[in-house]
Design brief:
By secondary structure, the protein is of the alpha+beta class. Helix content is 14%, strand content 34%. β12 and β13 form a beta hairpin.
């Protein structure tokens, strides 16, 4: 079993044999069973839609928390999740999430942001931004490689896909504003994200998705620490909220942090 307690801040672990999350005393989950994304659910966004390898691809545990913390987390309009991607490939493509965008926060012109923390394995976060009303025309595409302890911000305006390029389970936590539904249709309509990551003979290969009419080159970026958002390596996400209930206000009030989001995107665009 993979013990996630120290890295997550919750007494939880991952049972590789049953492929299920194990919750310690006092930890509750909104649903008794995880939401499971299967290969059949992903046909439209796979590099090879005819491939038959694997069935269950990833597991989503939404709304995990100590039972005593649930009222406070709800009061602040947040939700803490765990997502687990199994290792392996479908044909040559590494296991990934379906990919989605977020809707705009009502009364603003900004979409909801999100933050991720890698607890186990390796992650590639593919983030893409399209022109208004044109999901086929992309303005920018970034790939951020992250390892355990790293935290990655998905800023307003960006859709994202998570890829497991490693040989172990990719386990990650995230904080996000509660109460909105992710938008899967634009990426589904384009038959996947901007690039497909495939297993190569010596290194992964990134193949452009020809469904897009405007596709910028893939820009690889390191993880950018954001101390102003408490995105500090090695400090468990759940513990951050326990110590400062206001730490993730930028997730529920993104309109108050435009300049900081802008600075983050400037850093991404400058990275080589």
């Amino acid at each position: 079993m993979v013990d996630l307690s120290k890295r997550s801040g919750l007494p939880i672990g991952w049972d590789k044999k049953s492929m299920r999350l194990v919750r310690g005393e006092g930890v509750v989950h909104e649903n008794r069973e995880p939401d499971i994304r299967r290969r059949a659910d992903m046909q439209e966004v796979l590099f090879d839609s005819r491939a038959e390898e694997l069935d269950e691809l990833y597991y989503m545990y939404r709304g995990l928390a100590f039972s005593d913390d649930v009222p406070l987390i709800r009061q602040f309009g947040l939700r803490y999740d765990i997502t687990v991607l199994r290792p392996g490939t479908i044909s040559r493509e590494f296991v990934k999430t379906a990919g989605h965008y977020h809707p705009k926060k009502p009364g603003t012109d900004l979409t909801w942001p999100e933050v991720y923390e890698v607890l186990n394995g390796r992650a590639h976060y593919l983030m893409q931004c399209h022109f208004p009303g044109r999901p086929d025309k992309l303005e920018a595409v970034y790939l951020i490689a992250a390892k355990p302890g790293d935290k990655v911000l998905v800023p307003p305006g960006y859709g994202h896909i998570t890829i497991n390029p490693g040989d172990d389970f990719l386990i990650m936590s995230n904080w996000v504003a509660d109460g909105f539904a992710s938008i899967y249709e634009p990426i589904k309509k384009m038959r996947g994200g901007a690039y497909f990551e495939l297993r190569g003979e010596e290194a992964p290969e990134f193949v452009a998705n020809s469904s897009y009419t405007r596709l910028p080159s893939l820009k690889r970026c390191p993880v950018i620490p954001m101390e102003e958002f408490s995105l500090i390596r090695g400090l468990p996400f759940y513990s951050v909220f326990k110590e400062d209930n206001h730490a993730f206000k930028f997730l529920t009030h993104p309109e108050e942090y435009r300049d900081t989001f802008g600075q983050y995107l400037q850093q991404l665009s400058k990275e080589e």
